[in-house]
Amino acid sequence: MSARRKAIILVSCCLSLLIVSMDATIVNVAIPSIRADLDASASQLQWVIDIYTLVLASLLLLAGAAADRFGRRRTFQLGLTLFASASLLCSIAPNIETLIAARLLQAIGGSMLNPVAMSIITQVFTGRVERARAIGIWGGVVGISMALGPIVGGALIEYVSWRSVFWINLPICVLAIALTALFVPESKSAMRRAFDPIGQGLGMAFLFGIVYVLIEGPILGWAHPRTIIVVVLATSALVLFLVHESRHRDPFIDLRFFRSIPLASATVIAVCSFAAWGAFLFMMSIYLQDERGFSAMDTGLTYLPIAVGALVFSPLSGRLVGRFGSRPSLLVSGVLIAVAALMLAGLTATTPVWQLLVIFTVFGIGFSMVNAPITTAAVSGMPIDRAGAASAIATTSRQVGVSIGVALCGSVAGAALAPTDADFAVAARPLWLICAVLGLVIVALGFYSTSRPALRSAENLAPLVGAHE
User: Which residues are within 8 A (CB) of 460 and not within 5 positions of it... i.e. 6 or more apart?
Assistant: First the structure.
């Protein structure tokens, strides 16, 4: 395969990453405009974000297995088509319920993009050096999308409308579909994993149940019969999931993986860091636009320090992990997230803009430092043929974290989201204190997951999961 064709394949794969990554920040900037235009409640706004991240988290592993079985190019093109169609539906949604349903469809399409694109890249770039370079470019696109997302989104919202933030996906998807059809070869896996629909369904039931309770519980009441029923159903789903997965020959998630302390810790760290990230994105868009009166464009520019942090400190963290292991990056990340959260707890309605930029910079650097050690810790000690599954668990945990973070906004800081005269900064303070605790959890696990006993647990696990069963 020529270098030119490989480059075009990499571009088509990176385009999918661009739209999925950009979508998160763009939609958060649009949240206040969506509320005003569609008369959405606080819980409905949370569902606009969480229905996407929950479905994405639930289907990532299934999409990867489907691509291995039915063809990676075919699955990738189907995902692009569905994502584009759902984006169009989002842009013309006449009410908030339709928008939430369209976001669900968008997530189904999105689940077929990134894991499948990474599989295509590993199949096309077979040399060690060229694969490392391709994955490096792939990672750089995340930083670029974070930089472009708030600024492009802010400009589109201010000068066109919030609906235009979904239009931007359409030409990118069309270009990616065309490039994929012309240049990406079809490939399937020689070792096809069995599907586990029962495990998949139970896992989804548990995740949706927990997030439903966190979002709707404060509105219905914690002692409301519906809240109690959903808690019981979610708990039952978790118990049944654990029993089923422990007995299944080829489970949806191999529970033996969690005997590895680094992987188990990476899962918790991913949930903690991305919960803080999800809460930060959601709440600060509302704070900046509704509380402070910033325009959408000004809000996008305020997010710029986070994007710069991602561009500079994400690759720096990767180099630190390669040279010194995961501990330094995790400790820096946890400390900075905790410090930024405590600074957020001191916000008022008149906090100077320079101080906001400092907070955004501290949070951005802390968050940027966490991704590389999460992935590295997840695959630490794993056999090569299981590293992909371990990495997928970490990726899923990131999406679960965002869902929980956004859900916490309503359950802990509901008064800040309600259309009342409540002091936003005071109402949001308990949420930021929780985020500070999440940062400290990252610090503690940064020490524990890199200790000698923890690393030994990963080494002991490798022989158990190394052979295909």
Answer: 259
Contact 180, 75 (CB under 8 A): no
Q: In the numeric block, which tokens belong to residue 129?
A: 């050096």
pLDDT tens for the chain, 469 residues long, are: 788 888 888 888 888 888 887 887 788 889 999 999 999 888 899 999 989 988 888 887 788 777 777 888 888 899 999 999 999 999 999 999 999 999 999 999 988 887 788 778 777 887 767 776 777 677 667 767 766 788 888 889 988 999 999 998 999 999 999 988 888 888 776 666 667 788 888 988 998 999 989 888 888 888 899 999 999 999 999 999 899 888 877 777 777 778 888 888 889 999 999 999 999 989 998 899 988 889 988 988 898 888 788 778 877 887 888 788 888 999 999 999 999 999 999 988 889 999 999 999 999 899 888 887 887 777 666 665 566 667 678 778 888 898 899 999 888 887 877 766 678 888 899 999 999 999 999 999 998 988 888 878 877 776 666 544 4
Q: With both helix axes pointing from N to C terminus, report the angle between 304-324 and 371-379 in degrees, rounded to the nearest 10.
A: 40
Of 309, 310, 6, nearest to 139 (Cα)? Answer: 310
Sign of the C-alpha dihedral computed for residues 116, 180, 71 and 196 taken in this order? positive
Domains of the chain (ranges plus CATH)?
1-183 (1.20.1250.20), 197-251 (no CATH), 256-464 (1.20.1250.20)
What residues contact residue 145 under an 8 Å CB cut-off, 6+ apart? 17, 18, 21, 22, 25
Give CA–CA dist 390/244, Å, rounded.
19
